[in-house]
């Protein structure tokens, strides 16, 4: 059983929960996810099965798209709706202009720096940040650089008279490592307002969308009906289609399978750091530029043929 299973993760489950259950449903131990999705977030979670686990990190690198909601008026310990309120302010009708929001969104598009929230899985001195946070400890967090490919508003700003807050929906396409809840807080900071992320759904991961996905409940029902679950697995090539592809001959394929260092071909893709070698329709290896031998390429990952 080898391939990628696009899973629609429901709220209330961790990514590890999904992997654990899939191991039982599929009857295989080689199962790995492609990037943690918070328990209260639903959405696309590609799962690598069997030999496809070898390319899980590259599926993660392909980027993700989210639809979410930011609420202005208070901050929380977790930067989202699950945390305790830290600070509040009343938002008055007509106090936030559309022009100021659009300008803030524009400033947060492109390459930006983020500081991961305390309630996150980032490791500092060998411990997860959430382990410090649960003990009430605050530690210095490393700033990371991420890319926001697009950031757009989906709904007008809505004021809530009962809570003296305001909210709007947005869509973001971003690189790996981006914290959308931190982005929601940063948007508020740009406007001089307290804010947090109040809703989030991951709508795309690599090339996988909701239309590609199945749920755990559906898979369980299919198994109970003795259906062939392998039909829900997609080729690993779907997960790395963002990488440049190079079709190779029988002779080169034999060298690649043995992990040979190769001289760059004359028509080699320019400006690329990682290339996938395809042989007879299958990706059999990922090659990268050699760090010490100019004009040579070495294998980063050799993938046994299915």
UniProtKB/TrEMBL annotation:
Its EC number is 5.4.99.25. Keywords: Isomerase, tRNA processing. It catalyses: uridine(55) in tRNA = pseudouridine(55) in tRNA. Residues 181-239 form the tRNA pseudouridylate synthase B C-terminal domain. GO terms for molecular function: RNA binding; tRNA pseudouridine(55) synthase activity. The keyword Isomerase applies. GO terms for biological process: mRNA pseudouridine synthesis; tRNA pseudouridine synthesis. The keyword Mitochondrion does not apply. Residues 23-180 form the Pseudouridine synthase II N-terminal domain. The active site is at residue 38. InterPro entries: PsdUridine_synth_cat_dom_sf, PsdUridine_synth_N, tRNA_psdUridine_synth_TruB, TruB_C. It comes from the Bacteria. Coiled coil: none annotated. Belongs to the pseudouridine synthase TruB family. Type 1 subfamily. Responsible for synthesis of pseudouridine from uracil-55 in the psi GC loop of transfer RNAs. NCBIfam families: TruB (TIGR00431). This is tRNA pseudouridine synthase B. It comes from Mangrovibacillus cuniculi. The gene is truB.
